[in-house]
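dumping the sequnces here before i forget
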Amino acid sequence: MSGYSPSEAATRSGFSLDTLRYYEKIGLLSDIGRTSGGRRVFTDDDLGWLVLFRCLRDTGMPIAEMCRYAELARAGEHTAGERHALLRRHAERVEEQMRLLQRQYDHLREKIRFYEGSG
Amino acid sequence: MSGYSPSEAATRSGFSLDTLRYYEKIGLLSDIGRTSGGRRVFTDDDLGWLVLFRCLRDTGMPIAEMCRYAELARAGEHTAGERHALLRRHAERVEEQMRLLQRQYDHLREKIRFYEGSG
DNA sequence: TTTCAACCTGGAGCGCGCTCCAGGTCAAGA
DNA sequence: TCTTGACCTGGAGCGCGCTCCAGGTTGAAA
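..and the predicted 3d for all of it:
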């Protein structure tokens, strides 16, 4: 509860200060609160968004698509279906990505075994 | 056995023609044969390297590190230990990457379930 | 009151991995 | 012989996602 300073938000989200500012600049984050002196104050809700963005970035979603998702969410409850579909499509891509990664990891292990066999 | 044209090599490796030329330019590929007219001819051995590069790139190895590996291989059999270690270190990073991807994929699925629960 | 680390803005710069382009050459088929 | 598409080289350009910088402000602790 209450608010978090930029550096707290950075620590908790795993994004750098510059990245947080960048995300606000491009409209991925919006309506981040300010103190009277102009400093950012992140809410628990903002932190929740950052956790989601961390998840989406780590799974390879382009920033443009995260912006799209955030826009839809801001537009209201009636976009829930579209948001759902967007996440499902992304999940499918992630599954493909995981299969590829596993396959190539297996190749890599085989290559490593080759070194061990002839060492 | 026999040789492959650039476009054949591209198709078989999944790299673009420009990428093949780029890899040769930076020294990742070396000693690619030429016809009398100056056109590239890829051997089965070259194709084998490309398969390895595909594996390493797909698992996130930076090009600089692939260059290092290729250099070691060119230097001779006495670098086998170092090449082995390099691949093992990479495999560990890939394992970490897979764990993260799985974790974030689980988060994503949970988020998707949330949409299905309240839909 | 002074200090100083954390913060602000706008905008330039960067590292990576290609990708594209201009202007020319080569070679196989009609 | 002519055409045409695949290929050549050197070098510029690009898209992404930050990252850094200059120059200034804020605010809590000493």
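The first strand of chain A starts at residue 33 and ends at 34.
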